[in-house]
Amino acid sequence: MALPVTLPDDETYASYFGGEDSLEVNHLKAAFEHLTQQFQYTYLCGLGDSGKSHLLYATCIHAQEQGLSSMLLSLSEVQQFGAQVLEGLDTLDVVCIDDLHLVAGDEAWEKALFNFFNRFNEPGKLLLISADLLPDMLNITLPDLESRLKWGTTLQIRSMSDDDKAQALTNRAKMRGLELSDDCARFLLTRLSRDMRALLDVLDTLDHASMAAQRKLTIPFIKATLKL
């Protein structure tokens, strides 16, 4: 089954707003180092603007760089296909499952996740799961699945402040060779959605427009490009 999931190639550990030396990134890098010794499992807990999805994307990209097979399942995108999307994933080295809370309480999904967890639990495998709440707050109806979700390490990630988002935008622009001033970043935050994925999509648009017009990013140029 072809799944409609793509990996943003600029969402890496290096571009994570917490930085490569953050607790989250250091923990995940260490998990790869111990992969051959034992099964590695981490549960990421945070709201939609915490950057947890970024860490899942980055983990799959890191796996590819290590020559490992990987798959990202964004449940917001694949939930409609049913729990059978988990079949066969135990042959991979790294599996990342985003937004688990979307299927909490669904009997078919819970049983499939529990069975997948048991099949995947062996040395050489890394499982990363994210949700907006801690396992015992998800209203999981299958006690054995809730128990499995509490294995390993749970990392609670705080939501990004406006300062974090502005810094993340300027850093991401810099990685592309694009100069985005603090004033421009804050202008985007005040005039557009504060959703980080939406802001990064806007940055893509501005990047292309800046290259085409051979213009620096200024507030007047941003207004004209985005018709604000």
* Uncertain runs: 1-7
- CATH architecture identity of the largest domain: 3-Layer(aba) Sandwich
Strand tally, please? 5
> How far is the N terminus from the C terminus?
41 Å
Write the CATH fold name of the largest domain: Rossmann fold
Which word captures the global form?
elongated
Count of folded domains: 2
Portion in beta strands:
5-15%
Considering the protein shown, what is the CATH homologous superfamily of the largest domain? Answer: P-loop containing nucleotide triphosphate hydrolases
Task: Indicate the CATH class of the largest domain.
Answer: Alpha Beta
Write the layout of secondary structure elements.
Elements: H1 23-33, E1 40-45, H2 52-65, E2 70-74, H3 75-78, E3 94-98, H4 107-120, E4 126-131, H5 143-149, E5 153-156, H6 162-175, H7 182-191, H8 196-213, H9 219-226
Parallel strand pairs: 1-4, 1-5, 2-3, 3-4
Helix pairs in contact: 6-7, 6-8
How would you describe this protein?
The chain has 228 residues and is α/β, with parallel strands linked by helices. It folds into two domains: 13-156, P-loop containing nucleotide triphosphate hydrolases (Rossmann fold, 3-Layer(aba) Sandwich), CATH 3.40.50.300; 162-226, Helicase, Ruva Protein, domain 3, CATH 1.10.8.60. The chain contains nine helices and five strands. A five-stranded parallel sheet has the order 2-3-4-1-5. Helix 6 packs across helix 7 (182-191) and helix 6 runs parallel beside helix 8 (196-213). The longest helix has 18 residues, at 196-213. It is elongated and about 55 Å long. Residues 1-7 have low confidence and may be disordered.
